[in-house]
């Protein structure tokens, strides 16, 4: 098992954000006269990274775009998502990138694992770490020393510490690194010494050995694609961009508001209130609200569910309240002054067993302030100044 966990780095959004809104009070109020609104403040219409901080080629942007929102570093990717990612990976591999990557200084340093194929081939321990976004997975590559090494690191948390599995490394050719794992240890923040991970590497023979081919290394030294001896493909990155940091923060529940502020501040372009920007199906990832107080809260904000904005100003909210029991709200949206979307909910009904509709007398109007939007991420501020982060999961569906 230790050998498998060691090889993982030589291996990111459905999302599982912690503690989203609950509904203990939703049946207390089924009607309200309070208006609430959605406004566009600062936004980015197409650019999703801070080009001045991190530079990517167009094919690299395509890969990162397709990876954004895939959970478990590929573990929970759909067949269609895997196909799209593999196509983008193949495009970059065909472009070659830096020639002789093992001879380049750009390969040196700490890399973060953001995607891997075939995670099911790993040991139970490896699947636990690699497939859970709460843990961050890194790989350190240092070949130009007296003791060349490739190390795989599982960061348990800032408060707890990390597990580091090390391997002696040898450069075989311009692409391939040979390695042999020889030691592993936990570094806990609350202990002044390392705790050895009890694995008899010397007794494992060839099981402790492997190789890693670098099939693409970006000219900026920020993206690397590698393939391991077990047929696994790895996508690694040295510096993550703001959207990636936001999704990572949502996964761990740490620093979400700071990540939101960073993303908004890096894209100060004022939105022009184009309805087309909202069109599509959006999944709620995070809300600053602790609980919903009424059915209108739920219907208006799309808590715990999907929002579907149509091409002609329609909006539909589908919310899972309990297994087999949901809420469906239908309305429309228009652009008002100051880049504010006014959303009106006209019809609301309980959805039972996915089919039967039980009408409920709930209606209302609210404003939606759009703080940031691109083709993947949407950050809004709505009723009672609650902030929401949504992920676009598909193009608009028929309503």
Mean pLDDT: 78
**Uncertain spans, ≥5 residues at pLDDT below 50?**
1-52
**If you compute it from the alpha carbons, what radius of gyration comes out, rounded to the nearest whole angstrom?**
24 Å
Structural class: alpha+beta
Which H/E pattern describes the elements? HEHHEHEEEEEEEEHHEHEEEEEEEE
Per DSSP E runs of 2 or more residues, the count of β-strands stands at 19
The major β-sheet equals: 10 strands, mixed
Percent of residues in helical segments? 10-25%
Estimated share of beta-strand residues: 35-45%
Number of helices: 7
What form results from the Cα inertia axes? elongated
Termini separation: 50 Å
Describe what this molecule looks like in 3D.
This protein is of the alpha+beta class and 399 residues long. The protein is built from seven helices and 19 strands. It has helices at residues 2-7, 58-67, 79-95, 124-130, 242-252, 256-265, 295-301; strands at 38-39, 109-116, 136-142, 149-157, 161-171, 176-188, 195-196, 209-217, 223-228, 233-237, 280-287, 305-309, 314-322, 325-336, 340-352, 356-360, 364-373, 377-381, 387-394. Strands 1, 11, 12, 13, 14, 15, 16, 17, 18 and 19 form a ten-stranded mixed sheet that branches. It has an eight-stranded antiparallel β-barrel with strand order 2-3-4-5-6-8-9-10. It is elongated. It starts with a helix and ends in a 5-residue tail after the last strand.
Task: Kindly summarize this structure in a few lines.
The protein contains seven helices and 19 strands.
């Amino acid at each position: 098992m230790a050998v498998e966990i060691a090889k993982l780095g030589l291996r990111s959004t459905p999302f599982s954000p912690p503690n989203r809104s609950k509904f203990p009070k939703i049946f207390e109020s089924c009607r309200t006269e309070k208006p609430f609104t959605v406004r566009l403040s600062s936004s980015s219409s197409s650019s999703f990274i801070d080009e001045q901080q991190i530079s990517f080629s167009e094919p690299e942007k395509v890969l990162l775009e397709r990876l954004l929102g895939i959970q478990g570093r590929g573990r929970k990717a759909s067949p269609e998502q895997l196909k799209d990612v593999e196509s983008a990976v193949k495009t970059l591999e065909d472009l070659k990138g830096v020639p002789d990557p093992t001879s380049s200084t750009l390969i040196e340093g700490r890399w973060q694992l953001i995607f891997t194929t075939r995670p099911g081939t790993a040991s139970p321990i490896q699947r636990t770490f690699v497939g859970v976004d709460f843990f961050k997975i890194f790989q350190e590559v240092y070949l130009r020393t007296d003791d060349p090494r490739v190390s795989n690191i599982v960061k348990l948390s800032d408060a707890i510490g990390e597990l580091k599995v090390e391997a002696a490394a040898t450069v075989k050719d311009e692409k391939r690194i040979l390695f042999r794992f020889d030691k592993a240890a936990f570094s806990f923040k609350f202990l002044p010494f390392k705790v050895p991970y009890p694995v008899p590497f010397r007794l494992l023979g060839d099981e402790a050995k492997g190789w890693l081919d670098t099939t693409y290394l970006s000219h900026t030294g920020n993206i690397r694609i590698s393939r391991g001896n077990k047929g696994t493909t790895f996508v690694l990155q040295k510096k993550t961009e703001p959207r990636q940091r936001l999704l990572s923060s949502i996964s761990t529940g740490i620093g979400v508001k700071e990540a939101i502020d960073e993303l908004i501040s890096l894209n100060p372009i004022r939105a022009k209130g184009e309805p087309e920007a909202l069109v599509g199906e959006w999944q709620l990832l995070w809300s600053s609200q602790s609980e919903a107080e009424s059915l209108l809260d739920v219907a208006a904000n799309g808590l715990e569910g999907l929002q579907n904005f149509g091409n002609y100003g329609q909006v539909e909210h589908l919310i899972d309240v309990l297994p087999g029991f949901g809420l469906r709200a239908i309305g429309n949206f228009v652009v008002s002054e100051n880049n504010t979307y006014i959303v009106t909910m006209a019809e609301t009904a309980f959805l039972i067993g996915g089919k039967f509709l039980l009408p409920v007398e709930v209606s209302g109007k609210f404003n939606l302030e759009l703080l940031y939007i691109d083709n993947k991420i949407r950050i809004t501020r709505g009723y009672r100044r609650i902030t929401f982060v949504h992920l676009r999961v598909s193009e608009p569906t028929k309503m």
